Amino acid sequence: MKKYLGTALTAIVVLTMAILGFVFAGPNLTPLQQETLIILGIICGASACYCFVVGELARNNSQMDKLWSLLPIAYAWVIAGKGGMKPRLVLFAVIVTLWGIRLTINFARKGAYSIKFWTGEEDYRWAILRQKKAFQNRGVWALFDLFFISIYQNVLILLICLPALAAMESNEPLGVIDYVAVFTSLGCLMIETAADEQQMSFYTTKKKLLAEGRALEDLPAPYNKGFNTTGLWGRARHPNYLGEQGLWICLYLFAIGAKVTVYGVFHWTILGPMLLVLLFLGSSSLGEAISSGKYPEYSLYASHVSKYVPLWKYKPEKYQKD
Length: 322
Fold this sequence. Notes:
The chain has 14 helices and no strands. By secondary structure, it is mostly helical.
């Protein structure tokens, strides 16, 4: 109950922030911003069509996953170029590029990309969702693919880049807020990178041990648990999600630094980062439901370890005694 209450409160706060952003500073685009947004919208629409058509024909619904790290780089540099390569826009684009390169490399190591572009390793969660009773009907799944995977996620990827669009015509010089945005977003990138490296190392070793013919329960600790409880993962269930969400929230600070916000905080482009937080709430809940079904100890881990922020260390021997 406590876990669901926290999720519900987070969702309420996120939606409230998004609504206030629209109420106080709804879209009021200049001709240049409109022109730029049309270009971005064309890219977004083409990507959504590609993801749906190729995903349905190939029965591989990770087409959007492959583009997740690439599209923001394109969006950020289009905005920077159309905005005259102002320092604030270039900083935004450079950080997004570093983020995209890291995420693309990480995804490639998992076998997501292939010369046959429509193939590659599919995110395991799509296969699990397709097995759910509600999605076993081919038509229902196609609609889910069209509206959620292909359209909604493409639009979301565009939205998280729009704080740069908000700042593109600002002549406000770089200030403290902008430098805070740079250093905090890079800090989030470091957290995400460390978390993914620790996760990759854990599961690579676990896979090698299982390949030797041993049963999971016979593996040495901590691999016998089945899930990672080392490093950042011993203090948070989703430290990589903390870095991912944190980075895009920090990049929104560029809109504040450009002084285009109302009351110093609200601008309609806050919608993107807030919707991203909601997406990860759903994604983390799905992942945890799957892990709880696979690994007996996962529920104990989930009940004693923070969801995102690395806090206290996981100590199962203590909890089991209590």
